[in-house]
């Protein structure tokens, strides 16, 4: 047997689907599936911290401890410049996201004044409308505790006054603390996924680890357990939304 034949044999063997499953099985999964999907209790999870005043006015809000430390540093520097970076949303569990999603899916919560269950009997269309504003359970970066919403979740609040000043400060300085804007304007920096969100900032050194593990271990069988889950694959919830982010948020450090 020539060396070339041996190399060819090795390549064909490692490309074999069975062998690839074996490789996956022996690789160490760094973050559990439950954590990647937000199926945890952040109040008892060792990687999470409760967010206290002055960082938020809300109660029982949690985030990843490393992300929280970086955020506290950023908050302190901003505060000295008169900028108040209050967090309005942080960790959200799978069940929390499921409540939001299903209330919109069934029409108990109106979207743009409309009952989507009546306006869009077609499941795929209805899902796409909800996805303009909310993630499907199991696909939100808020499940990881690495991502936070700052000041407001309404775009018009960032067009003038205090919100505009906050956004400009974050654009200039957030990266110095490891934070990036995940949902930048389309199509300049990304072509798929959510609309622009000026309020959503991600601590990318930790979030990148989550995203890498997510890509390895989560598939459409895991995006389940809520109304409308069957369309997740059709609309490409993972490819288009989980991966439809600002490319500069994919780096693991500054
Ligand atoms: Zn957000």
Unreliable sequence segments = none
Separate helix tally:
10
What is the element string, with H for helices and E for strands?
HHHEEHEHHHEHEEHH
Strand arrangement in the largest pleated sheet: 3-4-6-5
The best one-word shape is globular
Main pleated-sheet profile: 4 strands, antiparallel
Q: What structural class do you assign from the helix and strand content? A: alpha+beta
Question: Distance between the terminal alpha carbons, to the nearest Å?
Answer: 49 Å
Proportion in helices: 25-40%
Question: Can you describe what's shown?
Answer:
The chain is α+β, with helices and mostly antiparallel strands and 254 residues long. The protein is built from ten helices and six strands. Strands 3-4-6-5 form a four-stranded antiparallel sheet. The protein has a two-stranded antiparallel ribbon with strand order 1-2. The longest helix has 16 residues, at 65-80. It is globular and about 75 Å long. It starts with a helix and ends in a 12-residue tail after the last helix. The structure holds zinc ion. The site of zinc ion has 5 residues, from strand 4.
């Amino acid at each position: 047997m020539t060396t070339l034949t041996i190399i060819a044999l090795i390549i064909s063997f490692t490309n074999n689907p069975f062998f690839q499953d074996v490789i996956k099985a022996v690789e160490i999964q760094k973050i559990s599936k439950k954590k990647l999907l937000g199926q945890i209790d952040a109040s008892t999870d060792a990687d999470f911290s409760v967010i206290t005043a002055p960082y938020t006015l809300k109660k029982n809000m949690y985030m990843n401890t490393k992300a929280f430390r970086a955020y506290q540093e950023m908050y302190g520097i901003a505060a000295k410049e008169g900028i108040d970076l209050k967090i309005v949303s942080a960790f959200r569990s799978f069940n929390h996201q499921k409540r939001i999603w299903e209330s919109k899916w069934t029409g108990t919560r109106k979207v743009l004044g409309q009952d989507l269950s009546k306006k869009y009997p077609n499941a795929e269309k209805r899902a796409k409308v909800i996805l303009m504003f909310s993630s499907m359970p199991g696909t939100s970066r808020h499940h990881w505790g690495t991502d936070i919403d700052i000041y407001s979740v309404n775009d018009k609040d960032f067009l003038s006054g205090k919100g505009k000043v906050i956004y400009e400060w974050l654009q200039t300085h957030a990266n110095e603390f490891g934070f990036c804007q995940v949902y930048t304007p389309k199509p300049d920096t990304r072509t798929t996924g959510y609309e622009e969100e000026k309020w959503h900032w991600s601590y990318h050194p930790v979030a990148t680890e989550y995203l890498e593990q997510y890509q390895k271990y989560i598939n459409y069988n895991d995006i389940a357990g809520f109304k409308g889950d069957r369309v997740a694959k059709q609309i490409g919830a993972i490819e288009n939304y989980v991966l439809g982010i600002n490319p500069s948020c994919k780096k693991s450090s500054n």
